[in-house]
Specification:
heterodimer, A: alpha/beta, Rossmann fold, Alpha-Beta Plaits, 4-stranded antiparallel beta sheet, 14 strands, B: mainly alpha, 0% strand
Chain lengths: 305, 261
Amino acid sequence: MNLMSNVLEVHNLVKDFGSFRAVDDVSFSVPQGSIVGFLGPNGAGKTTTIQMLLDLLIPTSGRIFYFGKDLKTHHEEILEKINFSSTYVSMPWRTSVKESLIYTSYFYNIKDRRKRVEDILKAFRLTKMQNKEVAQLSEGQRTRLILAKGFINEPQVLLLDEPTASMDPETAQYIRTFIKDYQQDHDLSILFTSHNMSEIEDVCDDVIFINQGKIIAHDTPSSLAKRIKISHVSLQIKDGLKRVTSMCEKSAIPFKLEGRFIVIDIEEKRIPDFLKQLLENGIEYNEISIDKPNLQDFFLSMTKQ
Amino acid sequence: MKIHRIWGIILRHLYATRRSLDRLTDLFYWPLVDLTLWGLTSTYFQKFAGGTNEIIVSIISGLILWLILWISTNSIALTILADLWDRNLMNVLVSPISFSEWMTGNVLLALIKTILSLIFSIILATLLYKFPAFQSTLKFIPHILLLILTSWWVSFIILGTIMRFGTKIQTLAWAFVYILSPFSAVYYPLTTLPHIAQVVASFIPTSYVFESMREVLAYGTYDMKKLGISLILNIIYLAITLIYLKRSINRARLRGLGSLY
């Protein structure tokens, strides 16, 4: 395995809590300059894995390499070059926005701390509220601050745990664009967890799907979506709603009624035949929309298994 | 060890302290309450119970020294708790700060807070009781240093225990040091204690400090043997408690930080 082209390599990671195996033989890599999504339902082992990647939690077995160096033996050197941001942590409540970034900048070997803090405040639209106490910020503003903290040391690898949770849509979009632009400009590598599937599709080059402690899929978001063959066809029926439902029941096609709308889950290749059948049965519809399978569908199908 | 990282730890808590009424209360309110209560009580003994001026001097000196131990212990113990309360501990632990830098930062921060509180107590004692607190404090520099050493190992026990059992036993940060109080003979001579308690006190470095303090006040002499025993005991306990703290942190890293909440 080439340790140099991948900035992060995880080999056969296992974590047991007593008799419970939370992470089961997980191996993956993050290539330099890529954004890898790390997905899974609650309790799948994502947080446990991330804690081990940050050396907060000691693995039962397995090894973690950053930049080709073992995290166990190069702890300090590696942590200087990586960072982490999570919606579930906060900066100290009784410090101001600026103070929290200033003191954090001292944890790292940063040349011009004052300039770096100013730049980060500006990039994350925090300048106006720099003197506000963390306790007075809204949940979304706090999330933005904790994300800003993750960039303070110009990391080469960034672990992001739901970075845009609790942000309003406009700010979330701004932050996603910032992350993508920054990632391209600085050749940054990111491991990204989120429950927002469209965000993952938008941002990530690759997705690792973990469930019950095991990796069950690792592919590009579009390839994962393509694994799902079922599309959602939504029709506003003008006349013949009962006939449509009986048609679906006969053909064992799952459907949902929403007023005059019927939403049908059907394999993409069967759609033309289904529409032909509607015509043959004299069923008229005013509107039709076809939603192709996406990452959300993949996520739902995997978590149902 | 990198100085800038240690400074980062100190800055984190100094910024928070100046905005936190809780932390300021620990530094200034309790010394004010204790000095007022104990000072007035000893003044009463002096005036109406036939006590001498030495009683008031001994009690206030004992109190000021005890406050040093309490504030220094409390300051160190609260550093980790404050990060747990603020959901900030993870941010510290994912940075390149080493265990020794983290602890050095916490200990230096406690030193700054203790000095601030000590200055406040000296001014207060001087104003309230015309007590020559500054001159007395200068006499007690070896005692103060020994008490600061004690506060380090006591707080390491507290921190280690919090790292094992989490915030559910956080009250230790305020209460634990009081276990030492009766055996330390802060306000009374050691001989006042029952024999068994005197045996226990002989293993507690603070008992030698407060005994020596009374001797300095009474005779103006330093009992180097007592101060030496206190120093040796402090060093032994520091070594043991540092290992305990390091092991407790490793244990928390085996179980996950979630177990601390």
